[in-house]
Amino acid sequence: AQKITQTQPGMFVQEKEAVTLDCTYDTSDPSYGLFWYKQPSSGEMIFLIYQGSYDQQNATEGRYSLNFQKARKSANLVISASQLGDSAMYFCAMREGGGADGLTFGKGTHLIIQP
Amino acid sequence: DSGVTQTPKHLITATGQRVTLRCSPRSGDLSVYWYQQSLDQGLQFLIQYYNGEERAKGNILERFSAQQFPDLHSELNLSSLELGDSALYFCASSVSSDRANTEAFFGQGTRLTVV
């Protein structure tokens, strides 16, 4: 079974609109971390935001926020006031438990911002 | 700039050959992770080293091996290369290895093409 599911292979959004990228996860470990990364066409992986399983508040980093719904096992990324430079692949990832293992990634969402 | 340096950026080699990919982690980071990103498999965790010791193994083939040296740089060795090994190989580093919330910073990747 997939541990990280991103159901939107691609999205088109108008510039300046808010966009929500979906991510659901599957784990039985009470301690885990959820991450979002951005991968522009140049290929590098850029860390955006992190949410811990015990965090009470939703994480925010500038225009990025994470809508964490623990009971639903979802960790959606919200980008406010989208910009042309936000066009990229976006990956949701999880690390479980003690953290010794690497990140498990979803298949990604290709976001295209239109002027 | 994440502070993680990977060399070379691009590598083209023939089937059956052996290559070595190099990674220098961020200053102060003891943990190094290797990932493979291919079109059919997506982003997969390969292996993790912490302060010179192997800490965790993911979907790493037996033809692949890695090590971390006393100066904390790491090398990923890929041997008996096949066409299917063509991929983008990422190195990531983090301060620790045993917490789920440990943020991992990625290098720019090495794009390997096997012909």
Description:
The complex is a heterodimer of chains A (115) and B (115). In chain A, strands 2, 5, 6, 10, 11 and 12 form a 6-stranded mixed sheet that branches. Chain A is 0% helix and 50% strand. Chain A contains no helices and 12 strands. Chain A has strands at 4-5, 10-14, 19-21, 24-25, 32-39, 46-52, 60-61, 64-69, 74-79, 88-96, 104-105, 109-114. In chain A, strand 8 and strand 9 (74-79) form a beta hairpin. Chain A is mostly beta strands. By secondary structure, chain B is mainly beta. In chain B, strands 2, 4, 5, 6, 9, 10 and 11 form a 7-stranded mixed sheet that branches. In chain B, strand 5 (42-50) and strand 6 form a beta hairpin. Chain B is globular and about 35 Å long. Chain B starts with a strand and ends with a strand. The mean pLDDT of chain B is 92. Chains A and B meet through strand 5, strand 6, strand 10 and strand 11 of A and strand 5, strand 9 and strand 10 of B.
Task: Give helix and strand order of chain B, one letter per element, not per position.
Answer: EEEEEEEEEEE
Structural class computed from helices and strand pairing of chain A: mainly beta
Largest interface: A-B, 29 and 30 residues
The radius of gyration of chain A is: 14 Å
What would a concise description of this structure say?
With 115 residues, chain A is mainly β.
